[in-house]
Amino acid sequence: MTIEGDWPRLTTLAMLLDLVLRNLIDNAAAHHDRETGTIVVRAAHDDAELRIEVEDDGPGIAPQHQAAIFLTFRTLANATPEMASSGMGLAIVARALGTVGGHIDVQSDAPRTRGTIFRVRWPKTIAALLKNH
Predict the structure, then answer these.
(1) What mean pLDDT is reported for the chain?
(2) How many CB atoms neighbour CB 113 within 10 A?
(3) Residues contacting residue 64 through CB under 8 Å, at least 6 positions apart
(4) Contact in structure between 43 and 6 (CB atoms under 8 Å)
(5) Which one in 40, 73, 115, 118 has a CA-CA gap of 20 to 30 Å to 67?
(6) Pairing mode, if any, of strands 49-56 and 2-5?
(7) What value, to the nearest 5°, has the Cα angle with vertex 85 and ends 84 and 86?
(8) β-strands 39-45, 103-107 pairing
(9) Model pLDDT, residue 29
């Protein structure tokens, strides 16, 4: 795994951010279909948000499945037994991001090309957001 980019010091809900990152990295590793692979985690930020990408060179996710992967207990139909999962990891990520006012999207064009990029937007002003709930 490679870590790149501009990672700021951040006062935030560390447990939720950790949960998001762990699930995205675990997902990239668990769903790889080759003996070796590459995972790149990168960050950038501005005054309003931290932007994180988790990119892998795995088999990718076909466009017609991309919305469903964030739903609870959904897994890809073409997953091999070695890639079996509970279908909870990405649903947890989406739920955690919704809690803090963040967002996630996915970029992949399987089977035309390999690889997937998950893009996360994590707001820097979570404390003010949570007071309104």
Answers:
(1) 88
(2) 10
(3) none
(4) yes
(5) 40
(6) unpaired
(7) 140
(8) unpaired
(9) 93
- Rounded CA-CA distance 44/6 in Å is 5
Radius of gyration for the alpha carbons in the chain, expressed in angstroms and rounded: 15
* Model confidence pLDDT, tens digit, residues 41-64: 999 999 999 999 999 999 999 999
Cα(54)–Cα(28) distance, integer angstroms: 8
| H helix intervals, the chain | 14-30, 89-100, 126-131
Tokens of 120: 């996360």
Q: Which of 98, 108, 17, 125 is closest to 61 using CA atoms?
A: 108
Specify the fold of 13-131.
Answer: Heat Shock Protein 90 (3.30.565)
Domain ranges across the chain: 13-131
- The residues, any chain, with a CB within 8 Å of residue 113's CB and separated by 6 or more, are 60
pLDDT in tens, 80-109: 444 445 678 999 999 999 999 999 999 999
CB 37 within 8 A of CB 54: no
pLDDT of residue 88: 87
